[in-house]
Design goal:
Elements: H1 9-27, H2 33-43, H3 48-70, H4 76-98, H5 102-126, H6 135-152, H7 155-165, H8 170-201, H9 206-209, H10 214-240, H11 243-266
Length: 267
């Protein structure tokens, strides 16, 4: 996919803003991560799945900054328990992506993200404390995280719901979130290249087949300064948000963005 055919003043402007928000989400306010991915998809209208793939290297750059700042606060036991269901979800997401077209993309992501966030809200309101410690809940959240991160980098909504259910404090939330997404996003690179090759062999048109290619990493170089700026701003925001409102604030932002994805997909 020629880079010059994708880059316009609008895509450059919106893409750079999305990169800034990715940086902010990784180092300070995870709730804006879903919105930043939505912005990138909007910037490359008609190439939504390619835009989703183009975001991944940018996410990894942000993850590296987040891991540097917060890795000491990670909960390794929680991550270890999540690994098997997340890996299953990644594989399932790759299979689904092999047969998905751009028109189905945003709606699917929005519905999945909204559903898990709505469930977490209901769980808290009804006091279902035992649910959060059950194996089915952990497995379900892990598989949904793997599935949604492949389909649209939307696992932030799922992880926010799950980490919230585990009653992590502000530092533990950021540390666990940082290491979790670094591992997940790095895992998606070979998977997305494989899906691109499979869809090409299946005869899909380029707009529906191209998810990750050489152009993806050229875009990373262009938008990387936005990650640096966003990472700096994110650290500032992180210090400003009080401990007791940190996780609820993230859940609300993710829920609003997920609803917007669903509405914008059908209107």
């Amino acid at each position: 996919m020629p880079l010059e055919s994708l880059l316009t003043p609008i895509t450059l402007s919106v893409g750079f803003l999305a990169a800034i928000l990715i940086g902010v989400s990784k180092t300070g306010v995870p709730g804006v991560g879903l919105f930043s991915c939505l912005l990138m998809i909007s910037a490359f209208r008609g190439h939504e799945m390619f835009a989703s793939g183009a975001v991944v290297p940018l996410l990894i750059l942000g993850d590296l900054a987040a891991v540097k700042f917060y890795r000491k606060d990670c909960d390794p036991v929680l991550l270890k328990r999540l690994c098997p269901p997340v890996a299953t979800g990644l594989i399932l997401g790759g299979v689904v992506l092999c047969f998905m077209r751009n028109g189905q993309f945003k709606l699917t992501v929005g519905i999945l993200a909204t559903s898990i966030l709505a469930f977490e809200f209901v769980r808290k309101q009804l006091g279902w404390t035992k649910v959060s410690t059950s194996a089915p809940f952990r497995i379900g959240c892990g598989m949904l995280a793997g599935l949604t991160t492949v389909l649209g980098n939307a696992a932030g909504a799922v992880s926010a719901a799950y980490f919230s259910s585990q009653n992590l404090d502000k530092k533990s939330f950021m540390g666990t979130n940082a290491v979790f997404f670094f591992l997940v996003n790095v895992s998606k690179i070979p998977l997305m290249f494989a899906v691109t090759q499979i869809k090409t062999l299946l005869g899909y048109e380029a707009d529906d087949a191209q998810i990750m290619n050489a152009t993806t990493f050229m875009l990373t170089l262009i938008f990387a300064p936005g990650i640096v700026l966003g990472g700096y701003l994110g650290r500032k925001f992180y210090r400003m948000i009080p401990e007791k409102v940190f996780v609820p604030f993230i859940l609300v932002i993710n829920f609003i963005t997920a609803i917007y994805i669903v509405v914008s997909s059908v209107v």
